[in-house]
Specification:
The chain is α+β, with helices and mostly antiparallel strands. It has 14 helices and 18 strands. Strands 2-9-8-4-5 form a five-stranded mixed sheet. Strand 15 and strand 16 form a beta hairpin. The protein starts with 8 loop residues before the first helix and ends with a strand.
């Protein structure tokens, strides 16, 4: 009989690897909607108070109950109207201001939800009459809660992994038809429970994730009801509902069947069309719940992008989840015991020529132990060969859809090196290349296994024919005459199975890395949106102001970006300074310290410290006095941590 090797070892090992990769690669999710423009413009000085403010984004956005907060020059919050979209423009956010705002500098803090379900926030200022002489210390609210963001990201990783395992293992059972699907019951159940638990956690944390508050916000019933009224919440609820019929379908996938198709024996017979159709419909619907809340749901060519995203996710699940199912099967199905094999052979030889009763007794198979998996060499080889062909098709779909999604997300070749999205994509391409190399090795082992199994079948047919032609008459009584010796290597394919098992294990390990990188990519600002935000950034400065962009890089992970410095009016005398820090993905970034000094080398003036203060979303001052015109050297010092800082210089022209 074939014994089951303990199945907890491989899932535990792969689960530990997944946790390590998640904890090592997890970081704050980047916002996906960037501000194109604000009206009034950031830093502008108006003659009269505006009656409203309008923000235009690079994609459609969702609004929260507290999307806008207005603060007066003293830092007190001013009551505003309800946030709305501009008529016919879902990529805008607008709020009405009350009358009689008065003079001075006002701060607008905003927070919205991108079309791909990620929250984004920021702040900007405008002045009425003239800028305030001093800046008020304003708390514009949290950008995100680290605990909530970490738990939410962990649940996103787990949801991707659970879906891949569930869909891939089910596809392996239905399409590859292994000789015994019993060992695959655990991967199927693990994928289902992982997807259920992660989806429940995502649904509970959705409200505090959007508002940037702590996990305790999940206990607010009103916030939970608001979550269920938005698209991200409805998508997660739909995923939960789809898991109910999936749970009903799972027992049928691993139900044991006899060779004649009746229940109770070994591997599954050919899958029925209704069962296959139901499984395909559920897999397609589950994949749609990701496409409806990811990059594909926003930007250009949304219908084509959502179709591509669904096919990409399904192909990934069929490949990586199928690999896990194949590895589980190869681990469970081992070579039968040599002693038992010899005993079975001796029993067969001893009954040959005996009476019918003895032959009938020998022909009766021994009952199968509950904890064994049936070893059927030809059937197992056929299942492996089928998966090899299916995996090749899945890889082709991954390549085609991946090329399209990369083009759609990047927008230009330069974005590969200049954006975080592009650099992550390059890392994914390297990992995919390694995965394809491992897959090629698995295909070679599969080809050897099929060839060896075919040769064994031919030899077996020849041996049976020879035995019929050379049958020796048996004596009426006494021991049977010796028969021709059987080949010693009855299990020649076993060496190929071991090699295939090792290559598939390597493929699964690299596949987990690819899956983690893919999940990180889904939480990173696409290169196309980052480029659009960068192009729109200079427009945020006030009319007539001098805008300077200073790139910096402290040489540590995440320690690079740009500082946009707006000097208004950029002439001799009193000037206002606004400095905005952009992270490596092009989104707004918070730094613990930003210093700015100006020097006029030709006249030996300076350095003059601008004395910037953190105003919530940007750094600024309204009291920088430049005494003379000329070419000034502007030095910006950016500190990104307790130990890491860098200084960069640029020259600016100051007129009279």
């Amino acid at each position: 009989m074939t014994r089951l090797r303990p199945l907890w070892k491989w899932p535990a090992l792969l689960g530990a690897l997944l946790v390590l990769l998640v904890l090592g690669g997890a970081g704050p999710a980047s916002a996906h909607a960037a501000v194109r423009s604000t009206d009034p413009a950031d830093g502008s000085v108006l003659k009269s108070a505006p009656d409203s403010v309008t923000l235009t984004f690079t994609e459609s956005v969702g609004l929260l109950d507290d999307s806008f907060r207005l603060f007066d020059p003293e830092g007190r919050r001013v009551h505003t109207g309800e946030a709305r979209h501009a008529p016919g423009h879902p990529d805008t956010a607008r709020v009405a201001f009350p009358g009689g705002l008065g003079e001075g500098t006002f701060t607008v803090a905003w927070r919205v939800v991108s079309a791909d379900s990620h929250p984004v926030s920021g702040a900007f200022t405008f002045s009425v009459g003239k800028p305030s002489p001093t800046a008020a210390a304003i708390d514009t609210g949290p950008s995100e809660d680290p605990t909530t963001a970490g738990l939410y990201d962990l649940a996103r990783y787990a949801a991707y992994g659970g879906a891949a395992l569930l869909i891939g293992a089910a596809a392996f059972v239905l399409l590859c038809r292994p000789p015994d699907a019993g060992p695959l019951r655990r991967p199927l159940l693990a994928g289902w429970w992982t997807l259920l638990a992660s989806t429940l956690l995502l649904l509970a944390l959705r409200a505090p994730y959007e508002t940037g508050t702590g996990p305790a916000g999940a206990l607010d019933p009103a916030a939970f009801v608001r979550t269920l009224s938005g698209r991200p919440g409805l998508v997660l609820l739909a995923r939960l509902l789809l898991l109910a019929p999936t749970a009903v379908l799972l027992p049928r996938l691993t139900r044991r069947r006899d060779d004649d198709g009746s229940e109770g024996g070994g591997g599954p017979a050919r899958s029925s069309r209704p069962l296959l159709g139901a499984a395909a419909a559920l897999a397609l619907a589950l994949a749609l719940t990701w496409a409806a809340s990811d990059h594909a749901s926003a930007g250009i060519q949304v219908p084509a992008a959502m179709t591509s995203s669904v096919l990409h996710l399904l192909a990934m699940a069929v490949w990586l989840g199928g690999l896990t199912a194949l590895l589980t099967l190869l681990t469970a199905l081992q070579k039968p015991d040599t002693a038992q094999e010899a005993a079975e052979g001796a029993t067969a030889g001893g009954t040959e020529g005996a009476g019918p009763a003895a032959q009938d007794t020998a022909a009766t198979p021994a009952p199968r132990a509950p904890a064994t998996a049936r070893f059927d060499g030809p059937a197992l080889t056929s299942a492996v060969a089928r998966f090899s062909r299916i995996a090749f098709t899945a890889v082709a779909v991954l390549v085609l859809t991946g090329v399209y999604q990369s083009w759609r997300g990047l927008g230009s070749w330069a974005a590969l090196a200049e954006t975080a999205y592009g650099r992550l994509l390059l890392v994914k391409l390297v990992a995919v290349a390694l995965l394809l190399a491992a897959a090629g090795l698995s295909r070679r082992w599969t080809a050897r296994l099929v060839a060896t199994d075919a040769e064994a079948a031919v030899r077996d047919v020849g041996r049976r024919a020879s035995a019929v032609r050379e049958r020796v008459p048996q004596p009426a009584s006494g021991p049977a005459l010796p028969t021709a010796a059987e080949p010693a290597d009855l299990f020649a394919p076993d060496a190929h199975l071991r090699g295939l098992r090792r290559s598939v294990l390597t493929e699964v390990g690299v596949g987990i890395v690819v899956l983690v990188i893919t999940t990180v990519l889904s939480g990173t600002l696409p290169g196309r949106a980052a480029a659009e935000a960068a192009e729109a950034a200079p427009a945020a400065g006030a009319p007539g102001a001098a805008v300077t962009m200073i790139p910096f890089d402290v040489g540590t992970p995440g320690g690079r970006g740009k500082v946009q410095i707006t000097l208004e009016p950029g002439r001799v005398g009193q000037n206002a300074v606004e400095a905005v820090v952009f992270g490596p993905d092009g989104g707004l970034a918070a730094v613990p310290e930003l210093r700015l000094s100006l020097t006029l080398p030709d006249r030996g003036i300076g350095p003059i410290d601008a004395r910037l203060t953190d105003r919530g979303g940007y750094w600024g001052t309204d009291s920088l006095n430049l005494p003379m015109p000329g070419t000034w050297t502007m030095k910006a010092t950016v500190r990104v941590s307790e130990l890491d800082q860098v200084s960069e210089e640029r020259t600016i022209e100051v007129s009279r």
